[in-house]
Amino acid sequence: DVPLGAFLSGGIDSSTVVALMSRLSNRKVKTFSIGFQEKDFNELKYARNIADRFNTEHREFIVKPKALEILPLLVERYGEPYADSSCIPTYYISQQTRQFVTVALNGDGGDESFAGYERYQGMAVAEIYQRCPYLFRKAISGLFSRLPDSTNPKNRIRNIKRFFSAVGLSTQERYLRWVGMISGDLKSSLYSDNFKSQAADKYPVDWLAPYLNDSRTPDLLDRLLMTDVHNYLPNDLLTKVDIASMSNSLEARSPFLDHKVMEFAAGLPVKYKIKGLVKKYILKKAIK
């Protein structure tokens, strides 16, 4: 009953939503993608492949450096400290999309239900690594610590160093290191003495412990998924899209968050979510 479209990144989740929309719709699906001038971050070609495959009415937008001008407005709209830089392109694609539709579907929730993040595989590898002899672990960690640093989040060496920087920590601390941007030492250097005294007995891992240590959930992957469903998904991803979209009078909807889909996924054995090196195994097989 209202103009309907979809955000399309070209990834598994948004592509699944668009594919199903195109099957159910009696008209062309309207799709919207956002890209960047920097080649390393521009993934528009994947979105174009899907748009061509399903013959959508496709529009693309490029985020340019002047996008930082929007920061004061975003600070006002989010109304609290918010650290996900992708709120900038999300705001812009919502602004552009609203010119053509009033509701946009997205792929949020697919990673948290079907295990799509690399950190899930990293956690499994880390658990195995910790059982290796100490001298072996010390030698390997020392070797990778000498590799050059990179600020590019897609750089493979950077990701390897990030892995080894946390591999020896507890599960909770390791998870926090991999999803966070600011270390405990850096936080401490930024705090005033008064704030330090007030926050002395407050630890971020306390928020995660009830999920990561849940004895009713024996498999580590399921505990990680539960942690993300209760924390990362609502407090980062959904907050980001909800505020960015509603700031532009656009309603965003997430089909993967249908409770029946989430309940079904939560009940699946972990072997159907990650199989070897394949993340979201059963989802990929289902939509192939």
Helix content: 40-55%
Largest sheet: 5 strands, parallel
Count of DSSP-assigned helices: 16
Q: For the CA atoms, what is the radius of gyration?
A: 21 Å
How does this model look, in words?
The protein is of the alpha/beta class and 288 residues long. It has helices at residues 12-24, 44-53, 71-78, 87-97, 110-114, 118-129, 134-145, 156-166, 171-179, 184-190, 193-198, 205-212, 220-230, 232-246, 259-266, 281-287; strands at residues 4-7, 30-36, 57-63, 103-105, 251-253. It has a five-stranded parallel β-sheet, with helices on both faces. Strand 2, helix 2 and strand 3 (57-63) form a beta-alpha-beta unit.
Topology summary:
Layout: E1 4-7, H1 12-24, E2 30-36, H2 44-53, E3 57-63, H3 71-78, H4 87-97, E4 103-105, H5 110-114, H6 118-129, H7 134-145, H8 156-166, H9 171-179, H10 184-190, H11 193-198, H12 205-212, H13 220-230, H14 232-246, E5 251-253, H15 259-266, H16 281-287
Parallel strand pairs: 1-2, 1-4, 2-3, 4-5
What structural keywords apply?
288 residues; alpha/beta; 5 strands
Task: Give a quick summary of the entry.
Helix content is 53%, strand content 8%.
